[in-house]
UniProtKB/TrEMBL annotation:
Keywords: Kinase, Membrane, Transferase, Transmembrane, Transmembrane helix. The lineage of its organism: Bacteria, Bacillati, Bacillota, Bacilli, Bacillales. Pfam families: HATPase_c, His_kinase. Residues 383-460 form the Signal transduction histidine kinase internal region domain. Residues 482-577 form the Histidine kinase/HSP90-like ATPase domain. It comes from the Bacteria. It comes from Paenibacillus chondroitinus. This is Sensor histidine kinase. GO terms for molecular function: kinase activity. The chain crosses the membrane at residues 12-36, 297-322.
Amino acid sequence: MKKMFKRYRIDYLLFGGLTSFVLILLTIVILLTYTLSTKELVRVTTYYQKENLNELYNKIEIQMRAIEQISLAATRNIVTTEYPDMTTDSYVNYQKREELETFLSNIAYSTPIIQSIELYTGNAFPSKSQSLVSFIDMNQAKDQSWYEAVENADFAWIGEHTITSNQGRIEVISFARKIYSNSGKYQGFMMLNLKSSSIQNQISGEIPTSNRILLDSGGRVITYIGDPSLPTKIKSYLLDMNNESGYMKVGLPESSDSVSSQKNTLMVWAMHYNSSCMLVQLTPLNQITKGSVHISAVLSLVGVSAILIALLFTLYFSNLFITPIRQLLHEMGRYTANTNKVNLPEDYQNEFGVLFSGYRKLMDRIKSLYVSLENQYKEQKKAEIKALQAMINPHFLYNTLDQLNWMALTAGHDKLSQILELMGKMFRIGLSNGESLITIREEFTHALCYVQIQQLRWEEGLTVSIDLAEHLQDWYIPKMTLQPFIENAIMHGFNERLTGNITISAKEEQGDVIIQITDDGVGLKKNWNAQREGNTGGYGIRNVKERFEAFFGTRYRVDIENNSQASGTRVTVQFPVLKYKQEEMNVSLGASIP
């Protein structure tokens, strides 16, 4: 996110950011509205479907119980139970048949829902052409698809099937009940064929387009309205419908072969305990959520309109916001050292006004700095000229020493000549072409020249030992480091003495160069640091410390202390290894030496 604000233009970010925000907010609102409204619609629909289904179920159950009671009364009537017991008297048998047919016809005519009555018995007679009662041989029932349900129970509901009547082939729903004699002998069964349309009208209620299924207690389909494939699709859910009424979301597949993994249908059922039927209603969830989809579509349309309006406002406000920034960028782009005036508006009183005012002040300051740099450049040129003139004096002194050395040799003053030669060598190393750093080899040579000058005075009384490793000699050190400490040892340590010994050693340890100067003189006096400023030794040592601090910061150490095991003084100088002159700019940034 931060990289975007660093990479892209502000007007693009404002325009895209506000648009994205409105789009995301709209998407969230639509999703929440759709989800919440869908849940509420499903809940309300489920509640009313349960209430409506229970009401329909009660009416259907009353109707079906009435049919069951009529069937029970008809099969236990003496006219029905004595009919199969035929005698040898044909007239008596005819009277029985007429009496039974009249009895059953009265039942059929008095109950409008009954289409016809079929009596399956071993003593079947041809039925009258216009009669609602048919006598059929029991052997013919064995070929029917519903016979198994009748054979295995005393009574059973038979789902919707087709029969042949006076009016042609019609769809009926039948209730079959076995007939037993008073002695308990099985004599056949009676089927009450009900008008399928009447049952379906009761099932459909006020919504004829619903998907409803009427099942018997064994889960067999009695009749249904709606999608003809639904009865086979709900078989896998029958075991879950163990309450008197309830609902669940189920996944009904496109075909009847499997169960869908997506719950796309609301299934509501109604039944009573110990009832012979169950009413099920199936409603696709997309029908229930159609209202939510409509609301979401309306919100989407409103959202698109809001996005368009937001885009227009964003373009307008981003232009107002970006214009002063563009003006500032334009002024910054055309800036030159000779710019006389900054062309920025002066009527802004907000943050842009502060930016413009700050830029004007910055330009004024830069102009002042240019003037200052120009004056500084002039002064620097003057200083360089003076420095070049000042360089004449050291060269003059160096040439003068050479002349004095030649004159001493001519006059036969060998010792004086030697002193002048050593002083010239020291002076040449001290000049070093203006360099601040010299090699450790040159620094030791400079110190040795000074010692040799002193030895000309001390003769055999002053001895010097040097221990310098070969690999250290080409490394660098600030010049004029050793001479002040050697001078201090000779002037103060060997004062009023005829002999003295000085040891100078250099070594490398953990990335640092450690140089030690040890003498066997009188050692340090009490309060030796409180020397007067005019003292040569004190000024030289202080000068070394100041130059080391300028070069190395805190990464150096200069310790002066008495020898712990002998007389005299030991000076320890420690600083980082400098293999190249360029390293002098970086060594002061490191950690300090303890």
